[in-house]
Write a structure and sequence with these properties.
The complex is a heterodimer of chains A (221) and B (79).
Chain A: H1 11-17, H2 21-44, E1 49-50, E2 53-54, E3 58-63, E4 87-92, H3 97-104, H4 108-131, H5 136-171, H6 182-189, H7 191-218
Antiparallel strand pairs in A: 1-2, 3-4
Helix pairs in contact in A: 2-4, 4-5, 5-6, 5-7
Chain B: H1 2-6, E1 12-14, H2 16-23, H3 27-34, H4 38-45, H5 54-64, H6 68-71, E2 72-74
Classes of the chains: A mainly alpha (221), B mainly alpha (79).
Chain lengths: 221, 79
């Protein structure tokens, strides 16, 4: 791209261009950093229970379909109304390290995926501020982000379902009908990430065409 | 950009150097008269411009007192 002195570089314009997403990403990253610090401090001193981490029982909320629950009912139901359980929290009172790990694997991958996406978004915004919105680099990063969201979501959903099934099998005797199988969970949860990924990949194509047009414009005297 | 690095993808020659020499004018003076930056005039002069606006062409012709054909010519490619 040829330099064009007629165009006055404006840092504020670049900053404004990436708002409000830029501000949101910054806020989330700061919040995540602070929360991580707090969790680490409490985890070191053993005074926190967070999804299988720390001391105490390791619990996981699983779908109730097929699990026989006795002794629970919804009180004060009006005549003609029925109640059915959605999820049940299954806990290992004295969890082994393996059980803690399995419970951790039911939620940690999602957090890691979200953080990775936020970091990639931050990088994308930095590129946009530096090179402008219509640059080949921006298109390339958008494309990568799209595939990352799609593949990452699929892996996370399948992995978390497998971890949950494995954990449930350690606390329930007999067969484990409670947890949806991985493919079922994948189909149910992957829909939104699939749409987001398609949007990002399409946007990447649009930006790539825009980059070519911007390049042509920059060469116009 | 790759295309720019590989050289121009057109066969139009710009005779800005010759016209400037004939009129005893410098690129800086032309830049001031035409209102186009020296950088952009250099891009045009070196044949790296992808397009030229009619408004720029008009001001160049006014400043250099020439016709567009004096400024631009098509070079027949041998391949």
């Amino acid at each position: 791209m040829h330099p064009d002195l007629d165009a006055v570089p404006d840092r504020d314009a670049g900053r404004k261009l990436t708002q409000p997403l830029g501000g949101a990403v910054k806020f989330i990253l700061i919040l995540a950093g602070v929360l991580l610090f707090i969790v680490l401090i409490f985890a070191i001193f053993g005074t926190i229970q967070l999804g299988g981490l720390g001391s105490g029982p390791a619990c996981s909320g699983v779908h109730l379909n097929g699990i026989e629950v006795t002794g629970t009912s919804v009180a004060q139901l009006r005549p003609g109304a029925t109640a059915s359980g959605g999820t049940v929290s299954l806990c290992a009172s004295h969890p082994t390290l393996g059980q803690r790990l399995l419970v951790g694997l039911t939620w940690i991958p999602t957090v890691v995926l979200y953080l990775a996406v936020i970091l990639l978004l931050g990088q994308l915004l930095r590129v946009i501020r530096g090179a402008g919105p219509f640059a080949v680099n921006v298109a390339r990063r958008l494309r990568f982000l799209g595939w990352f969201v799609l593949a990452g979501s699929l892996i996370v959903v399948v992995g978390q379902s497998a971890a949950q099934s494995a954990f449930v099998s350690t606390v329930i005797s007999g067969s484990v009908p409670a947890v949806r199988n991985a493919s079922e969970a994948g189909l149910a949860v992957i829909f939104v990430p699939l749409l987001i990924a398609c949007g990002l990949l399409t946007l990447a194509r649009v930006i790539r065409v825009g980059a070519q047009m911007s390049d042509d414009l920059a060469g116009t005297v | 950009m790759a295309a720019a690095d590989e050289g121009p993808d057109h066969a139009i020659d710009i005779h800005l150097d010759e016209l400037l020499a004939e009129r005893g004018m410098t690129l800086t003076q032309l830049s001031e008269r035409v209102g186009v930056t020296i950088v952009n005039l250099s891009i045009l002069k070196n044949g790296r411009a992808k397009a030229i606006r009619f408004s720029t062409l008009t001001r160049l012709c006014e400043a250099l007192d020439c016709q567009p054909g004096d400024l631009l010519s098509w070079r027949k490619q041998s391949d």
